[in-house]
Amino acid sequence: MLKIVTVVGARPQFIKAAAISRAIRDQHTSSVEEILVHTGQHHDQNMSSVFFNELHITSPKYNLEISGGTHGVMTGKMLESLERVFLAEKPDWVLIYGDTNSTLAAALAAAKVHIPVAHVEAGLRSFNMKMPEEINRVIADRLSRLLLCPTQASINNLNNEGISQGVHLVGDVMYDVSLFYRDLARKRSNILENLKLKEGNYVLSTCHRAENTDDPARLKGIALALSRISQDMPVVLPLHPRTRKHLIEHNLLEIMKSVTLVDPLPFLDMVRLEQSAKVILTDSGGVQKEAFFYGVPCVTMRDETEWIETVDAGWNTLAGAKASVIVDAYLNCETQCRAMIAPYGDGYAAEKCLKVILQGHLA
Which residue among 96, 288, 324, 345 is buried most deeply as judged by most CB within 10 Å? Predict the structure, then answer.
């Protein structure tokens, strides 16, 4: 039997892992054993255990409970703990997702003890090495034996870096997830009623990236933009703990008194809000894509994006963190020309990932 250790630590990774874990349960229970490791990078109740419950992910065998501290401190602690797990479990593969410190630590730990790594979402690039996520994904790709790419652009990025061995176009597991949960969210979530929102008549926003939250000028620009937009239409902002902390530190909550601020939401509530919003404003890579999957225009409050296809097709606008630019991008969303594209696969990315891993094991 093939033994896989899957390492997750942050909300987007929980969601991506759900697709592949479900494919293992549905199709490969007799041939694949999956052991889930939660690093604890997101430790808030609303951002971790609730997602396992809603997404029907098996409870982690290991919860390392590592969070907080600098990037080096967090990654070092994870590296030490994950190495112990890998030596104890002796898996055939370590499966990693995305670009977090958990991703980097798992790739390093596995490489050091000579366990092959499969990287879901390989090849994504923002070309901004000031972003911790960019450093994590570049190093993870260098250490991975199987690079499971969501788009042709990600394959092109790897080829430009001289990486061609073990590269596979599988599609985006997030698209699998969106197809599976979109109708379920409409049936089970009451978030619109709870927040007194009308379908298609509100703006959903998220803000969590360090480049925005840790820079007072950028954070103020975003706060001002959301405040101005909320004069035109209700704005809902589920607050990441780091974002809330910095808003308080810099006395920005008063600016946002007309914005509906809520705690991090369960997954199905978030899906319901995403698919029913008029516009989404975000700095999250995952939320950018989810906006596209649900046919909702998006304004990305960053200077670059890994998901350039959505920008080229007119579904996504890069606006940075200057208030006037964000507001203008929001106002122009309705008149933006949007092309119908399908760059993220056919909804069977998880099955394709498993097929590649199984073939790689037999090779």
Answer: 96
The tokens for 227 are 């405040």
Q: Say which of 28, 168, 208, 246 is annotated catalytic.
A: 208
Task: Please say if the pLDDT value at position 363 is more than 60.
Answer: no
- In DSSP notation, 256-292 reads TTTSEEEPPPPHHHHHHHHHH-SEEEES-HHHHHHHH
Place of tokens 């293992």: 24
Contact 143, 108 (CB under 8 A): yes
Angle at 270 between CA 268 and CA 275, to 5 degrees: 95
Is 208 catalytic? The answer is: yes
> For the chain, first and last CA: distance in Å?
15
d(CA 310, CA 288) in angstroms, rounded, equals: 8
What domains can be seen in the chain, in order of their start residue?
A: 2-172+345-362 (3.40.50.2000), 189-335 (3.40.50.2000)
**Token match 């809902």: residue?**
236
Per residue in 125-160, pLDDT tens?
999 998 899 999 999 999 999 999 999 999 999 999
> What's the rounded mean pLDDT across residues 203-214?
94
Tell me the per-residue pLDDT of 221-251, one tens digit each, with 9 for 90 and over.
Answer: 999 999 999 999 999 999 988 899 999 999 9
Which strands, in side-by-side order, build the sheet including 117-120? 62-63, 32-38, 2-8, 93-97, 117-120, 146-149, 167-169
Residue whose pair of structure tokens reads 């009308």 in the numeric block: 198
- For residues 89 and 4, is the Cβ–Cβ distance under 8 A? no
Instruction: Provide the 10 A C-beta neighbour count for residue 167.
Output: 18
pLDDT tens-digit readout, 252-298? 999 999 999 999 898 899 999 999 999 999 999 999 999 999 999 99
Residue 282 bridge partners (DSSP): 300
Cα–Cα dist 272/200, whole Å:
11
**pLDDT tens, residue by residue, 290-313:** 999 999 999 999 999 999 999 999
Decide: 206 and 283 in contact? Cβ < 8 Å.
Answer: yes
pTM: 0.89
Cα distance between residue 82 and residue 117, in whole Å: 13
